[in-house]
Amino acid sequence: MDEARRGFMKVALTAAAAVTQSANAHGQSSGHGQALPSDTALRVKSLESLLVEKGLVDRKAVDALIDTYEQKIGPRNGARVVARAWVDPAYKQRLLTNADAALGELGFGGLQGEHMVAVENNANVHNLVVCTLCSCYPWPVLGLPPVWYKSAPYRSRSVIDPRGMLRELGLDLPADVGVRVWDSTAELRYLVIPERPTGTEAFSEEQLAALVTRDSMIGVAKVSATSTGDRS
Ligand SMILES: [Co+2]
Fold first, then answer.
1. Domain around 107
2. Structurally, how many domains does the chain consist of?
3. In the chain, which residue ranges form alpha helices assigned H by DSSP?
4. What pTM did the predictor assign?
5. What is the mean pLDDT of residues 54-77?
6. What is the pLDDT of residues 150-184, one digit of tens each?
7. Which of 79, 111, 139, 182 would be 190's cystine partner, CB 3.0–4.6 Å?
8. Are residues 203 and 104 located together in one domain of the fold?
């Protein structure tokens, strides 16, 4: 990384931290991590424009950075947690009874994920996570929320017709499987422990983690022994 890039990263991270704190404070007063206050959004936009103008960063690089946190780095943390829960029943029990402590064992926690609850899918119950008011999401284990998670149709249909919505997303649940919908807030966020797919009995923890998708930890997909990736 050259000096200009290093300098940019420092500025960007400082700005991100300021935004996070601001959004977090806003969220705690309203119960939800609301969309950014407009003045903050404007300041971020100005900062980005300035950085682009000065040639310190191009928009594609910013988009790539966001994509990385949305798709790659973020959800890998949650995948490690799920894989550990699958191979270690005692860990799973701790995760289900005190998620914050169990996530802390693996080094995960902090901003936008201070209070977590883990919910487990099984043959009878399927869990689905939404934030009906805005976009509360467990950053330490899933990274940044995907665009569809923040969309009005997802937020409303998850509550009105979760089964129908899941079917449209390609997850057709049998009628005898109950669907539980969890509404996230700034104070409480959820991680779904998907079912371990059959045919993975001989898999290592690492191999299992590689199968776990972000979508399965939100509850809009299952995990298969041949991982299919996430919705964009
Ligand atoms: Co919210």
1. 75-218
2. 2
3. 3-30, 38-53, 59-67, 74-87, 89-97, 99-105, 139-142, 147-150, 152-160, 162-168, 205-211, 214-218
4. 0.75
5. 79
6. 999 999 999 999 999 999 999 999 999 999 999 99
7. 182
8. yes
